[in-house]
Amino acid sequence: MALGKILMILGGIITIVATYVFTFYAFPPFYGWGIGAWLIVADAFASGEIMIILIEIFIILFLIAGVIQFIGVKSRAVGFIGSLLALGGFIYFMLIEFSLISSTAIYALLFVGEALGPLPIHISVGSFAGLGVYLLAGGAVLGLIGTFVGRE
Q: Per the omega criterion (within 30 degrees of 0), is the bond before 120 cis?
């Protein structure tokens, strides 16, 4: 298997683990993570507010970024899009971490969910961000590198 495909697979795995196993932020007993976002999807669409629905559509695309990266093993364009979605999530949480955007920080609450047994794993790496944010960046960068490295 070519190096580009291996990097794309590793990027997809890391992105999925970052999204569904680790937290993006925590306010115990509530955690910002991928499963929490899926639990809020129905309520967000039921609210009827167009802005919340548009944001939720972007969040759903972000939540499936790891799967899109896996599809990127066959198609470079799809892998590139999946990696950009993961990178966009990282940038959003980093902008909140450094208090550069406070007006849209409220939308980070769309990721809040309760812990399910031992998950999510929260390792704080900063005042706001958890380890999941940084793993997300790693998966996105591996996916981007895998997009441009040879595949044959």
A: yes
